[in-house]
Amino acid sequence: MDAILIQILNGLDKGAAYALIALGLTLAFGTLGIVNFAHGALFMLGAFCAVTFSKVISFSKQIKDESVTIFDAYKEIPYLEIWWGDFGALIVDFAVPLSIIVAIPVMILVGIIMERGLIKHFYKRTHAEQILVTFGLAIVIQEIIKHFFGANPIPTPAPDIVSGSAAVGALVGLSENLVYPWWRLIYIVFSGLIIFAVFAFLQFTTFGMVVRAGMADRETVGLLGINIQKRFTIVFAIAATVAGLAGVMYSPILPPDYHMGMDFLVLSFVVVVVGGMGSLGGAVAAGFLLGVLQSFASMNEVKSILPGIDQIIIYLVAVVILLVRPRGLMGREGVFED
Amino acid sequence: MTNILEIKGVNKTFGGLHALRDVNLEIYEGETHAIIGPNGAGKSTLLNCCIGKLIPDDGSVTFNGNNMIGVDAHDINHAGMVRVFQTPEIFPELSLLENVLIPALAKRDGTFKFNPFGDIFNEKEIREEAMATLAEFGLEGFSEDHAGSMSRGNKRRLELAMGLIQKPKLLLLDEPTAGMARLDTNNTIDLLKTGKMREMTKVIIEHDMHVVFSLADRISVLARGHIIATGSPEEIKNDPKVKEAYLGEGDHE
Amino acid sequence: MKNLFKSNMSIMLVFSAIVLTAPIWLTPLGANYPDLLQKFAIFGLFAVGYNILFGLTGYLSFGHAAFLGVGSYTAVWSLKLLSMNVFLGIILGTIMSGIFALAIGYLSLRRSGIYFSILTLAFAQMAYSLAYSVLTPITNGETGLQIAANDPRYLDSLVGISQQGQGIPSTNFFGVLLKSWDGYFGFYFAAVILILGFYLSLRVFRSPFGLKLRAIKSNQTRMTYTGFNTRPYLLSAFVISGMYAGLAGSLMVAIDPLAGAERMQWTASGEVVLMTILGGVGTLIGPMLGAVVIKYFENIFSALNNSELHQVFNFLPSFLEETMVFIVSPFVGSGWHLTLGALFMLVVIFLPGGMMEGVTKINSFLKRKFGKTDAEESDVSIQQEVQAKAQQGGE
Amino acid sequence: MKKNDTNKSRRTFLKTATASSIAATAPASMFYIKDAFAAEDFRNNPKDSKTVTLGFNVPQSGAYADEGADELRAFKLAVKHLNGEGDGGMMNTMKPSMLKGNGILGKKVAYVTGDTQTKSDAARASAKRMIEKDGALMISGGSSSGVAIAVQGLCQEMGTIFMAGLTHSNDTTGKDKRRYGFRHFFNTEMSGASLGPVLEKEYGNERTAYHLTADYTWGWSQQGSIKKYTEELGWKTKAAVKTPVGAGDFSQFITPVLNSGADVLVLNHYGKDMVNSLTQAVQFGLRDKQVNGKDFQIVVPLFSRLMAQGAGDNIKGILGSTNWNWSLKDAGSQAFVKSFGKEYGNPPSQAAHTCYVQTLLYANACEMAGTFYPPEVIKTLEGYKFDGMGNGATEYRAEDHQCFKDVLVVRGNEKPSSQFDLLEVVQEVPRAQVEYDASLLGGELGPYKV
């Protein structure tokens, strides 16, 4: 029972990341008709917002380390700590959650620049060309990051207070063995909030209504004389921000490196396809579903029956879905079904 | 007269919409048969049921004595029923000559032939035939130009050439003059009336009455998914049901 | 198009001459060492084959690296179990990847457009993941599959060749070691196969089969109503290009008998897409050109460092030299991917026909400038284009 | 230049072909000829050149990039010392030594570098570039056994000596050993032999282990060795799960451990993988657990200070083995740490140490042989006994080109005295305890001449 529960939690955790990335991807696809291979790079950029922010606020003074005698060594102490003492240390410690404040405007800006500068010129080009140009863009973005941050993952720890694990089992009256890291729980909740916010925005605002109408029938909305261009830009900025926030919060789980976007890109595309191209609900559902499936597939009991299944389960599901039901779980009929 | 195409009791519904109701139609060999009707009467649906794009709910479509329902589109083509599209469907990136070579190759190679070592430049016979066909439509001067850069009138000619080179038993023309200026329309009418095109069995879907009455040997009128009349142009002109259902409205268009 | 095909013979002669003299004319570029030359030939072959699918039919596969990997693994196993003669390994590698391509293509081609791309991507990733995990007895996983001194090599021992006690034998082609001539034999071997492969692709391009593939790319629906069953055509193109990939993969093994799973990863598939687009998709020579450029970047550009840059710019005044080095340095060395990505974007945005389109444009520009008759011709075609656009707009 | 070479080797090829009786009598063309160097000539022979080029092939990206960066620092330092710059480091403590600080055989040492990306294909490509284009006479480096084995195979083929960097799999000097490959670093067999008794002392005989293993030659080798030695103690092995290299998120592999009934987790991971898996194992509360009435323990059989730095507090108290640590007090280690620390502001890692030593050993062997001709250099290194390089008296065993020396069993330091003082040496296991017969691991070295 514990084993099952913990696999579910673990699946939700993975699924939360998949769902968040896929959500932005499918939003951009559904409204703008853009197949964005640079979406993974946006996720990565978000994570590097956290990295940059924590680097900046932990900017340090070098102090000679007297304990090393054999050669001259230097210790680094953040200036914030020197100036503000414990409070400064606390801020440094909370770098990741605090960096959300920075990440939101940065990602919005990145989204706007990307849409205005490049994506907008590709609305009328073929999907293949969109894939190719955004693939190129993804390479450029990740190489720029590599240039400034190096090729190696940069540890970006969560605040100390949540670095341990929560006794989830004891909390809900189950076995005490059932523990789960705090930060991963936070990630699940956080992604739930973001997803809720996006859906609420689309559901309850006029802007959202237009966007939803656009997803249903782009041409008609264009004919209504609504300034679609501006809305497209905003939608793209939202998609970028969602991906970016997913990246920020993911950085303590996986030390960010310049390549992390590419690793998630393929998976999130699969998630979008399984959910149904252009279906927001589908993307979220498929994200969590695939996360949980993958988590269960990596149980030893499963692997002993189907060796290697944990490595391919996601792709396998995608292949089956594409062959049997190309519109995906919740996609509309006719989207790309030829 | 022998029937080349027989449509019997065809019904087709989309959701709640009854697009075709018990349609019966016979096309005689050698005739030019026009199907007319107001927008949304089901003309295109009927055509699509013939060429394998749609499968009727019930009824039969027999071509040359063979059932055509559920047969793949490419096999229907090889049976001898060839379609010319409303908006010219050509290969825009290929040259005009290549555009005509393709259907000629289809005629020769069948639905699939793996011949990666042939040489398209040495296929003298088929190239000459293609050039001759282009010449028939006055396109020989453009044979090396990209089809996509042609004017709409030339695209239409090209498409007719593509249909003709396959020597079909029956040519289905879907609004061959749609969107054309009067001059082009008249040119197209002339094209369809002269040379090899004249003798060919044709079904024309059209709502330009000028075209219909210039070309058709017989006319069927489709209204709300149902054939309300079939006959010679004179008979149709004087049919009160037709007047009511179609011609009256047609004048307004 | 026609000019391109004017003469089979002269194209092949020029191509062969350029390829076979590569060790000489690449010397000033520092790219004349065997390993890189071999890479040019092998990846050129890979791209030329990929172009038969992507260039002719327009189907964007993101999984061709899997076939390259299958070819490699098969070839290593042939070296291990049968013979150190690479002839057999290359044949078997090509056939085996053809079989894989048939299976994957059969399923993937049930969909088109982006769904096709994602299907191929998923299949290739599965192959990669399995090669990395469960299939390690066959692939030796991350370590890579290598030959060993005590491999059985049944065919070799059958004809009485034994290498016991001599360490690990080298690959040979009917007795001639691939590493002979300081490794240049390996290059010439690959180059001859490249020339053959290029000739084959040339034939495909100008065959009725090739024309039909181009027609499918142009308007697949129309092909169906013209009487063609398009799927077998697509499948043939897919299998042919898969076999090219397998051939390239087994050539890699022939020259360097090792197969690693990473050559099956989707980014490796992405690389061949980059090559094809960069050079000019659907053109005969473009993909080969793209492969050379990318491999040159990867091997030479990536090894450039600041001191070498200073040498390049040392004709400038020193402050300018510093500035130039500062500007250029992020784009070379480990930053070569940045150059590649940026170049690729520029090509997709401004030159969808790749470098070959650039060549054509420059050519016609020069002609317009210096040759009157041609200028008139191009003016006519421009007029036609304008006309066509105006008409489309009017609809 | 190129043309000459080609002619020469073609001539050599013909000579060999006619001289060889097999060639003369071979019935079919499907036979096999050995290419050979004439004794006076060999690939990249520096001849009259004033410099000799060495190739340093290290991971600059991927899971082992930290080690790679440190290796490169060590190589640069070694080249400096060989050329007589700096304080000379271990050149002053190495014995016997013929190094004079004037390069190698009077030729100044130059070097080229490459990025292995921790991938076999990429590593071979960059090694090939260094040999074929840059004229490297010796290749060294690497931080993965997969890469080491791949590059070692290539070097045998090319007739270029390979002085392995950090490679810990048994296969490097076992199943896949090569005449042209040498390893100073220890291996998993030695780790198992040294760690076994300590584990018994600390955790007793009744333990159930759960292995998470990097899925490649080193992981398999280490899992095998640890399993072998712990099962000899009476431990049980609950499961051994393979994880992909560079997986990043190991949570899906760690969660099954929680309820498996195992009370020891053996992490057969290295570099970033180990930092991630250990951190996540701790996050999932493994170290606070009680299983079978015992405290749950984590063991990391191959340790390095760089990893300890990455893992932070999580590493405290965890047992493992290491080839070398900067805290050693012998003269050689001290000289090296001093020199390295002065240059870079931090102490060298074990990866840096082994690469530095390997470079010096190669240079010294050339001096001793009086030539760069690889077969002669190889013969000098085989059976070479030396001291003063940080691990006590050491021998390059001729049968498998494996160095035999003392091994360190270490523990994550609970109370570090400085930011670098992360590993506490539990025991210096003497060489005799970790020595094994060369036949145990099999393999075949192959010929001197290629």
Protein architecture, described:
The complex is a heterotetramer of chains A (338), B (253), C (395) and D (450). Chain A is mainly alpha-helical. Chain A contains 15 helices and 4 strands. Chain A has one domain. Chain A has helices at 2-32, 39-57, 79-84, 86-93, 95-117, 127-149, 168-171, 182-204, 206-216, 218-223, 228-250, 260-275, 280-297, 300-305, 309-324, and strands at 60-64, 74-78, 165-166, 180-181. In chain A, the strands form 2 sheets. A two-stranded antiparallel ribbon of chain A has the order 1-2. Chain A has a two-stranded antiparallel sheet with strand order 3-4. Chain B is α/β, with parallel strands linked by helices and 253 residues long. Chain B is built from 10 helices and 10 strands. In chain B, strands 6-7-8-3-9-10 form a 6-stranded mixed sheet, sandwiched between helices. In chain B, strands 2-1-4-5 form a 4-stranded antiparallel sheet, with helices on one face. In chain B, a hairpin with a 2-residue loop joins strand 1 (3-14) and strand 2 (17-28). In chain B, helix 3 (96-109) packs across helix 4 (124-136) and helix 3 runs parallel beside helix 5. Chain B is globular, with a radius of gyration of 19 Å. Chain C has a domain at 3-265. Chain C contains 19 helices and 4 strands. In chain C, the strands form 2 sheets. In chain C, strands 1-4 form a two-stranded antiparallel sheet. A two-stranded antiparallel ribbon of chain C has the order 2-3. In chain C, a hairpin with a 2-residue loop joins strand 2 and strand 3 (176-177). The relative contact order of chain C is 0.15. Chain D has 450 residues and is an alpha/beta fold. Chain D folds into 3 domains: 1-36; 51-186 and 326-405, Rossmann fold (3-Layer(aba) Sandwich); 189-322, Response regulator (Rossmann fold), CATH 3.40.50. Chain D has helices at 2-19, 21-25, 65-82, 120-133, 145-158, 188-203, 217-233, 251-258, 271-283, 305-311, 331-344, 350-369, 374-381, 431-434; strands at residues 51-58, 108-115, 138-141, 161-164, 181-183, 208-214, 236-243, 264-268, 290-291, 294-295, 297-302, 319-322, 385-386, 394-396, 403-404, 407-412, 423-429. In chain D, the strands form 4 sheets. In chain D, strands 7-6-8-11-12-16-17 form a 7-stranded mixed sheet, sandwiched between helices. Chain D has a 5-stranded parallel sheet with strand order 2-1-3-4-5, with helices on both faces. A 3-stranded antiparallel sheet of chain D has the order 13-14-15, with no helix packed on it. The model of chain D is unreliable at 1-39 (pLDDT under 50). Chains in contact: A-C, A-D, B-C, C-D. Chains C and D meet through helix 3 and strand 3 of C and helix 1, strand 2, helix 4 and helix 5 of D.
